[in-house]
Give the backbone structure.
Amino acid sequence: MLRVRDADDPALTESLRQSGLALTLDEVRRIASTLERDPTIVEAHAFDAQWSEHCSYKSSRHHLARLPTTGPTVMQGPQEDAGIVHLGEWRGKRYGIVIAHESHNHPSQVVPFEGAATGVGGIVRDVLCMGARVIALADPLRFGPLEDPHCRYVAQGIVDGIAAYGNAIGVPTIAGDVYVHEGFRDNCLVNVVALGLIDEAGIIHSAAPPGSAGWDIVLVGKATDRSGFGGAAFSSLVLDEADAQQNRAAVQVPDPFLKNVLMRASYRAFDTIRERGLTVGFKDLGAGGIMGCTAELAAGGGFGARIDLDRCPTSQPNLPAAVVAVGETQERLAWVVPPEFTPTLLGIYNDEFSLPLIAEQAQAAVIGTITAEPSYVLLSGGETVMNVPIDVLTRGVRYERDYVLPIASSAAPPEAMTQRRLGDILPRVLAHRDVCSRRAIYERFDSVVRGTTSIPSGYADAGLIVPLPGAPLACALAVDGNPRYAVLDPERAAEHAVVESIRNVVAVGAIPAGMTDCLNYGNPENARHMGEFVAGIDGLATAARELGVPFVSGNVSLYNQSAAGCAIPASPIVACVGTLADVSRSATPALKKIGSVLYRLGTVPPGLGGSVVAEVLGITSDVPSPDYDATRREIAALLQAHRDGLVLAAHDVSDGGLLVTLCEMAFYAGAEVGVLLDVELDVHGAFAESGAFVVETGRPAEFEALCARHGAALTRLGMTIAEPVVRGPRGLDIPLSALHEAWTAPLNDFYADVLPDAAHA
Amino acid sequence: MTVVRCVEVSLTIPDNEARTALVTLQRLGVPVTTLERADVYRCDVQEREADHLSELFRSLETLFNPNKHSLRVRAGDGPARGEVWIQERSAAPERAEKAGVRIAGRRLPGVTSLERFTSWRLSAEMGAPAGPDLVQAAQETLLYNPAFQKATTA
Amino acid sequence: MSARVGIVVFPGTNSEEETLRACLAVGLEAALVPWNAHPDGLRSLDAFVLPGGFAYEDRVRAGAIAAHDRLMSAVRAAAAAGKPVLGICNGAQVLVESGLVPALDDVERPQVGFTRNAPAGKYRSTHVHVKLAIAPERCTLTASLPPGAVLPAWASHGEGRLAGEPDVLARVQREGRIAFVYCDAHGAVSAQSVPNGSALGAAALVNARGNVLALMPHPERDAWTYMHHGRERERARGDAAQMLATSGGIALFAGLARAVSA
């Protein structure tokens, strides 16, 4: 028992600390008064995990309710581990794209390789447990300055970890982004997005199905060990250098090799369940381990559960009951199945796919049953070590945190700057840390495994896959979230994250179908940090409503703050999924033909705040406000132009602005097609980065008429030419080779100071 | 004056690779009972810096993360009984006479030469270090590819 | 009756589905063969493909553990019987570690290795082209290709650099065991086209008999038009059937189909 009711505050504080519990005094007293007794040690750890910010969204939940989550594209909104949008029909079946998005920030800061790898592992399970085939990954990453050896070490370890896991399980990484900012020096961000393909009739829910009292709970995967104990509580704590050693027990050890087999075995289980017409429950183990997963499975169906911890396979002797119950050993999932199906399920994992031969003690095992009585019971050594009302456990707690809304920094609009020479600025912008080529990083990730990739990462604004072999249905994925905006204006930064991710999928020709958000913020107990979070939700909600694209799932990561109290730049990171009925109507941003016409489709709102050029030139300015009416028209016009076959190439204007967009389109074409501008651009026109697309077309008259019909602004920029240069009025004339060198040089040596085979990576 | 020191970095979290190697060797009839893997850095270090070597390597976070590694400076300049050290045939020691060898983006003051190996430590029955025949059987069966790797034993 | 091809799935293999699709697309009867299948049941198969991935997580060395798998006895028997055996990426590493290529003097032990990429020593996934470097009829799988054929593919590996003793490498070259070399899109061979520092620019090795081919880059990752970049993709714009049709790297699988039925 944990002495609570007769302990005074200092004594209770001390015993919480000694037990490694992050529960507050209020919370633990509330637990004791609800139970009308002191909690057992196992119960205390169970509540500690289940009532953590990570599991219960206790500070964020009521704010999240403001996000729009419905629409005709939604097959399933944000109620389980992942959301689902409609992909389309093929041979009489309706297919959906499952999308899930999570952070693994804290673990990646402490143990970069394992932290990032287990982040990928976790998000894959979230998609898998819906009954889906896992088909794509994306990784939005935020690093501190790479000149700093520690930040560089963290960044390299993270890239290695993602590569080691994602590549091994055989899921292509088709999108992602990297921003480098001083504000991530003590807290990197590792967000991970996974997509799944599902036949609508095959959706499996993370809940015990109706009438499942008495059914078996089957645990599958890695045997439980000591790794990952305290993970949920750990990720809800402020990082402190001195605690790094203590955090060690919370290190989760990835096993992509086992996961590879586990995924394939689960696919076989899905097929068998479909053949037999069964309704079952399936959920991954994440925060809160066996306890968290099975309690939520049972509670999700309105049931209770009874688990015998002695039946849970372990790979280390004498593990305490609390470790078995809530430890976050990786690569595990749990099923709720009717007992008559259990032998078949065990046979798939243990015999057909031979889990026990893949990793020590890995297997599928029955560990308990679903009960009609709504209590959650854990047995260990023949004794009851936990017995609580299940709804108290899983409902968690709610906090209405105080907040102070941020005031956007504002500045006078910059001078016209027509006297600036664009040719002097362009190479500096191309070499900026947020603009330069990411080839050194994205080449580390396998973007083409599964043979479904049509546009790999690094080739366009969004990745594009053809997930169902033989069908023309395609699916695009893009991520966005710009910290340069966030430090000036958290609300507009959130709006731009939505707008930008949507524009990215539109650029390749896909119709935006749904989004996820991963909300990475500071300490919710700090009113200023909480205010940034609230403002961020407002921004996301506004932009999603204005553009009519719902959020179908999401994740919140708070306490991204160093011990010194420095929070990260507010980081609402948005992933957008787009769908396309016919992959042959998609376009890449690479310039295609000499002698075609280049247009800017849309306008760029005034203001250079948060732009790369503002940083390069030392200008202060407001963050531009998205023009939603204009954006809607641009999107409608570009999608129609894609369908009509008028688009040779399209690229969205973002980091670095219009000239960078044009350069990238030329680089993607192997620098064999040049650009001749016949329009005079000022600094804003050349480098502002919050709106518009660049479109290459071979049928200018039709394209102009189409844009006029949609009321979308169109500016003719110039032509493509055979000479490999970017040339324009007022002396702009630079060889593509020089621009390409400026663009590729900064990250060329990303790995220069790493051992070829870094220790045990 | 320089002296030779070997720094050994091993995992404190489970080593799946070593386990798979052990299981495979046993299946192939090589009677190994335990198998441990480590990275070994053999250094020529100036005598006055030798005592700081452990500290120096602990500061190289690319090589050593206290959350998952343990580190020790070993006695001797080569494999112990029961060990085989593997490296690529083409591998040559990093050398720098004065300022110190560069590794993982850092200069190691006083270290004039550095070589890396993967070390496998094998034991036979009752946990005793494996004898030369057993080590040789294990290395030739699985632990190295002689076409492009070198194996060094005690 | 169409030929039966076994696509070997080790724990950690990850490219079996697209490899299977490529085989089916050229009219082969093909099926996945799990690592725990009994080798005796596989003797009737007409060919094996070892697809890409990370068999046993490449523990110890890429391909080393899988090369000792029980299932490999069936692959060895097929190779000895002159049946086609194609290893792609990790499958190629397994063939080298098992000694099935280059098998100089018919000795089946590792004579060369595919080891860490140079210079960075890191996994890279990048689009490449490979050029047939032997007379087509020298290898049963390439017999239907024109001399000097250039195929698109993806190099997606961390250990693809051919390495070995200088005299062994010299023999490998002299005895025509380098089946493909890296090249640019036009077939020009230069150091710049080699993504991994591979000795002799080698992308693939073949045994003396010409029935075992170990190819590091993945032809099946550029075997349908929607995967292409540049002009081929552009020509299929607006035509779903053409976009979903096979092309490019599929030629090697067509070669396998010819070899199996020959």
Chain A is about 35% helix and 20% strand. The first helix of chain A runs from residue 9 to 18. The two ends of chain A are 41 Å apart (CA to CA). The first strand of chain A starts at residue 74 and ends at 76.
